[in-house]
Amino acid sequence: MVFPIPHDTTPILEVTDLQVELVTADRVVRAVDGVSFRIGRGETVTIIGESGSGKSTTAMGVLQLLPEDLAVLSGSVKVGGVDLLVDRDAARRIRGRMVSLIPQDPMTALSPVHSVGKQLTGAIRLAGHPRSAARARAVELLEAVRIPRPAEQLDKYPHQLSGGMLQRVLIAIALAGHPVLLVADEPTSALDVTVQAGILDLMLELQERTGIGILMITHDLGVARLVSDRIHVMKDGRFVESGEAEQVVDAPHEEYTKRLLAAVPQLGTFEEVPA
Amino acid sequence: MSAFLSVRDLVVSYGGFRAVDGVSFDIGKGETLAVVGESGCGKSTIARALVRLVTPTSGSIELDGTDIAQLSEKQLRPVRHRVQMVFQDPYGSLDPHLTAERIVAEPLRGRSAADRHREAARLIDLVGLPASALDRRPAEFSGGQRQRIGIARALASSPDLLVLDEATSALDVSVQAQVLALLADLQRERGLTYLFISHNLGVVKQISDRIVVMRAGRLVETGATDDVLRSPAEPYTRALRAAALDPTTMRGRKPRDVVRQLQGAPA
Ligand SMILES: Nc1ncnc2c1ncn2[C@@H]1O[C@H](COP(=O)(O)OP(=O)(O)OP(=O)(O)O)[C@@H](O)[C@H]1O
Ligand SMILES: Nc1ncnc2c1ncn2[C@@H]1O[C@H](COP(=O)(O)OP(=O)(O)OP(=O)(O)O)[C@@H](O)[C@H]1O
Ligand SMILES: [Mg+2]
Ligand SMILES: [Mg+2]
Questions:
Q1: Which of B13, B31, B32, B94 shows a CA-CA span of 20 to 30 A to A135?
Q2: Do the Cβ atoms of A162 and B91 come within 8 Å?
Q3: Would you say the pTM of this structure is higher than 0.80?
Q4: Same domain as B110, residue B22
């Protein structure tokens, strides 16, 4: 094992004053402008906020997944006490094993020319399982993410699956590695609400059982309120409000957070027994 | 009033698998029909059939009186610009080599360069992106920004029917509200007709007149949106309704308890 699983007081993830500048041919964008947060054992911390505010860039920065010729990072990102910005090789060693990502974008995360099964068993083998057990484990993982007829799906290619099925394949891949930290960027955005409930249950159950820390990004304030210990509200690269989930959603202090909550489409009640 | 779009007994198969298995519905001109349902139940497949990215196995798709279900590519040419689609996947559906301006103006081939530029700039502004976005390529945008480029492109050819497949799923609720308002404005001004696929029942309630609930390739319930969402008749629709998370109603409850209660869609 590369890192010890942190004991109760060392945070699983501690991000201090992270800045990310994206350098393109004609300009420099400060996508993340000094954010700090920590995730302890068994905790879920969620970033909500404006489209383009830097949420995914924060996630990719934490995991050191931004191309070196694109991103300049400063601050510190400690996983189990090891600063990934200092020990650059550490990120590569732990990714897919102790730290997993559910990316926002299924199609660029999966290769179009390999079957779903091949890509999932690849992740399973990276996590140290023998080849002989990989297919059985793959079926198990697809079952866990509520994909119907899992064995059949393994032979399909990404374009043959629906949007929500692909999203669940990404979740299965992320869970293949027994992570201590899961970074989930919009993990349920393509799921209907009944399947979403199943996935949230799976994540909460895993957290109860293993003490996994979760960094979640979502536009769904209901999901955020449900699963988070703390919520950070992001706008223009910064956190404009941070607090306990209940406080941020039930009694926000900042104007921007209030505006977000006011924009949630209201569904109202329904008759639980058919007329 | 005769329907603007009339779909009858639509079947779409991939190999031997019937992803859409005999679905019928109508949409009137200037109306919004929402399609909701289980992940993998065939919603995107219906969308792809309507814009004829796939050819239906059987059934008819009458658009303003013409059945387009089996038209050849050549026969489809005069119809294509009238039906546009916003794709579920904002990543895979934008050409990574083109600038946002080229992507948005792509349907405007044949117009002058100045015209195309003006129109692309107008559309980019309409979806809430800055003018500087025009020169950038897809990789330089966030998920929600790409989704809005997809919406701008779909609007470029002034379609009569817009098929929106999870078109606001990557937007924060505030930008989503702006996009929904834009769609409502366009509908009022230009009589656009929408087929709106979404997992978000709150959004569906806000935008749609009528709703179709699907499961496993079939239609299980349909009706006026407000009626179906207020008193769903089918067990599956009730399960969907029960699993919708409202941030304001879970005060003081333990996540596991809420989630357990939400689970258990009927088999
Ligand atoms: N490769 C890149 N080159 C230049 N700018 C980029 C690049 N990637 C992202 N950006 C910009 O950085 C900012 C932050 O993007 P990011 O993807 O982190 O946003 P986000 O908060 O995840 O938004 P969304 O909710 O829409 O996914 C955006 O303004 C985006 O346009
Ligand atoms: N090109 C294809 N080849 C084979 N099967 C396919 C193909 N495209 C889709 N399918 C299958 O058809 C079914 C319906 O897929 P579709 O994408 O229409 O679902 P959906 O309702 O849009 O789901 P989601 O809400 O997850 O996006 C799924 O079982 C999927 O695996
Ligand atoms: Mg993002
Ligand atoms: Mg779909």
A1: B13
A2: no
A3: yes
A4: no
